[in-house]
Amino acid sequence: MHLYFVPEALRAGLSADVPYSPAFAGQVCFETAGIIVPEGGLETQIKAALRKAQSVVEAGEYTMNDVVRAEIWVVNMNGDTSLLNRLYLEFLDEVGVQFNLDAGIVYPARQAIGVSSLPHALALVEVVFKVAVSQNATLD
Prior knowledge:
Layout: H1 8-11, H2 41-59, E1 67-75, H3 82-94, E2 109-115, E3 125-131
Parallel strand pairs: 1-2
Antiparallel strand pairs: 1-3
Helix pairs in contact: 2-3
């Protein structure tokens, strides 16, 4: 059995009725009312899902420079990752993720997966960021 530390900031709003933790679940582009943002299509949803996943990382008191892996599922990608690549690189630049190949600082590993659908019918993208957690992390 694995025990996972979920920071207090990520525990707000959780209940036994919800079978997942936002710290471990993928993020889609829900508005605050729990409604998918369909306007703008894939580009809007990619941007919103990246920002939502970023907010989960930061709620855990980490930064985007602590992210070691990104997993992104895209509906009907059809092998074309150009839009995803452009938006992902723009996002990394905007949030200050460092990249310096000469110094050995590289972007997080990324896996882009094309799928036929996601659990929510209107969702076109889901994002998961995996963070390197210090072995010295303590439970509150």
